[in-house]
Amino acid sequence: MKITDVTVTMWEWKDVPATRYTRTVITSSRRSVQMGLLRIKTDEGIEGNAFIGSAFGSAVEDGPYIIKVIKPALVGQDPFNREQIWQRNMQRLRTKLNLVGAVDVALWDLAGKATDLPVHKLLGSFREKIPAYASSAVLESPAHYAEEAVKYKENGWAAYKIHPPGIAVEDIRICEAVRRAVGDDYRIMLDSTWAYDYPDALRVGVAIQDMGFYWYEDPLAYDDIYSYIKLKKLLHIPIMATELPAAGPISYAPWIMEQATDYLRGDVWLKGGITSCMKTAHVAETFQMNYEVHHGSNSLNNIANLHMIMAMKNTQFLEVLLPDEAQKHAVLNEIEMDEDGYAHAYNEPGLGVHVDFELIKRNKIAELS
């Protein structure tokens, strides 16, 4: 089997709602973004798909880049040589890890379709379902967080994670309100999204560990290993870092060797695809560390993430970023939770994604080839 063509269909995602997750990841009004459907085609009529773009990042430049730079190196290749292709792409496309990831996801999708197996079976399945946690946007008040957390608790979800405004004193009030609302036994986490200096990170960390929070995520600047080491020595709540930067498996080495984090973090969008994330998850396992999978930035990536999770022993949850209308788009069979708050494996060949081709056709901007 050989790759014969690579195309990108660009379409408009209209009226994405205003949403905020950090001090910098914010939109002030509804807007539209350009998305892309990557299709890697073969001489046997089998193709693999991936999405580029997200509610917070247009693919307007990435689509042409794939055709101009990436396509010439893919055409003629054996699509089953995923490791070779991934290694080459990591060497030459280090500033485009989202596109390294998109190519890798599409190749895994293609391989599953060619073998008539779901991707998680090709990876080596460990489970068939995983509990989900709801991951908030930045909300208006402590009461809004508390109300949302109670809603997901009552719906059977395993946990609730707070994305706060990033101001220490306000963030502590939010955490207190949520803990009071859900009770002492429900799992809640805080993702401070790199907002604090060291004194505030310590202040918030002490407060939430006393409230029994389950983990403390990204309190400090993503590259401040020195302060993470200090913080980890003084806190007993598990600390999770390494979501950023967008980098491959080698970037995790100093975090492990310096004992700067308790859990590792990643997803197919930021870390270079399924191949990359599975390497890191296995390294984490050798150190008895969790590899918790971050939201994938678009619907197809989230399903790719779910396939990885089904093949990982050392991850506890599926992250579901809220609100749905800012995250789910152009897939007909989105991830849905059952009555007990579990997401289940996709068991059709490849990723098992039913792309909404009609929606893409109605909103198409360009066909790149």
Description of the structure:
The structure is a single chain. The protein is α/β, with parallel strands linked by helices. The protein has helices spanning 62-74, 82-92, 97-115, 119-123, 142-154, 168-182, 198-210, 225-234, 253-257, 268-271, 274-286, 299-310, 357-362; strands at 3-16, 31-42, 47-52, 129-135, 159-162, 187-191, 216-217, 239-240, 264-266, 291-293, 318-321, 342-344, 364-368. Strands 4, 5, 6, 7, 8, 11 and 12 form a seven-stranded mixed sheet that branches. A four-stranded antiparallel sheet has the order 3-2-1-13. Helix 6 (168-182) packs parallel to helix 7. The model has no long low-confidence stretch (mean pLDDT 96).
Number of strands: 13
The helix/strand class is: alpha/beta
Radius of gyration: 20 Å
Q: What number is the mean pLDDT?
A: 96
Q: Give unreliable regions as ranges.
A: none
Strand content: 15-25%
Residue share in helix: 25-40%
Number of H- or I-type helical stretches: 13
Task: Output the helix-strand order.
Answer: EEEHHHHEHEHEHEHEHEHHEHEEHE
Cα separation of the termini? 20 Å
Question: What sort of overall outline do the alpha carbons produce when their principal axes are compared?
Answer: globular
Main beta sheet: 7 strands, mixed
Features of the shown structure:
13 helices; 369 residues; 19% strand; seven-stranded mixed β-sheet; alpha/beta; 38% helix
Short description:
With about 375 residues, the chain is of the alpha/beta class.
Q: What's the structural blueprint in terms of helices and strands?
A:
Layout: E1 3-16, E2 31-42, E3 47-52, H1 62-74, H2 82-92, H3 97-115, H4 119-123, E4 129-135, H5 142-154, E5 159-162, H6 168-182, E6 187-191, H7 198-210, E7 216-217, H8 225-234, E8 239-240, H9 253-257, E9 264-266, H10 268-271, H11 274-286, E10 291-293, H12 299-310, E11 318-321, E12 342-344, H13 357-362, E13 364-368
Parallel strand pairs: 4-5, 4-11, 5-6, 6-7, 7-8, 9-10
Antiparallel strand pairs: 1-2, 1-13, 2-3, 4-12
